[in-house]
Amino acid sequence: MQYNFIFDEYNISMGFFNKVENVGIEVNKRTIENLDVDSNFYPLWSGCGNRLDKSKVELINKGKMKLLLISDGEALQKMTLGLVMNLIKQWNLNSKQVIFMSYDLRSDETYKLLLNEFLKFREYPINVIAMDTYLFEPHSGFGNLPLPTKEIKPYRYVCYNANAKEYRMFLVTELFRRGLDKQGLISLLFRYSEPAQILNLMSSDFTSDLGFDTTKGYGKLVDEYAKTEMVKRVPLVLDRSMESVDKNDRPVDIDHIKHSYFNIITESYMYNKSLPQSHKTIFEMSEKTYKALICQPFIHLGSYGVLKYMRSMGYKTFPELFDESYDDIINHTDRLLAVVDSIEKVCKMDDKEFHSIYCRDIIPKVIHNRELANSKKIKENIWSKFIKELLEI
Question: Is 265 a residue whose pLDDT tops 70?
Fold first, then answer.
């Protein structure tokens, strides 16, 4: 079936679809004056130059085209779905003609949970679709990231954390409490927080918010260490100040990559008790993942099932180093602990054994991952799957 993306003019920004065209994939597009009987989709948001008006709303409500809301950098969640509902009510749109595209790769599951949690969203049922949007972001923005070499490196890992979310503060606290901090390059910048808020955040009840019992046992140990020791150390700045990151958070320090063996990825979303239940299924691969994937082996802290998805796309993961069973753990606190335990185990490996595994087994996999991520083929596969699912809505 033929499809078209409809734009107000040929020369306006297409937002996300510009990135698709820039990797050499043809995007079928027409102007609003040239609608035909094929499936038509009118993109909006995320840098797209289209603008809604009454005539376009009429075309949408008559079934001449569907409204495609692009959220290439935010997951489907209460906030973004609320924006969709407001738009539907503002323009009196037929919600069944609305499609929300998100980089949450489990958007369908997340949407079902949102409908169960927030009954108001049932009044305006929409369609949702997932897209691995960051695959199309040019890697040149990260800098000239080196491939791994067989040289001995002074650090086992690098772990970047700009926005100090609960799971990131927990992870960093545990790296220090377990004495693993000296083996790594760690940042914790408290992005979006005022300087006066940093100590309050580090001494907050984030361990309890994650779901740990802080009155006894393990939870109490982590909570006390954060409030007595970590408050003396934060913020953790490697090379870039918060002001620098705010201006451009894409570049990576090449020396950090050269001088460390693996990357601890802390993705943008992970559930805690203060969040809606629908956050449990959010699953995304942002630039944080792709920065690591193209230059280092990695362990991934975010949602469950990420490694399974990567392997299905042809990427290699690293069971030679890590106990990757954490990827199957749905409970977020159990998964968090499994990741920390796996990091500790790797950090305590014999240096010669570790380096031998790295040189023999790991380097070829990283080279493979970069070649695959840079290839046109994987992007064409993702795009074809997206179009197929779009036409089935």
Answer: yes
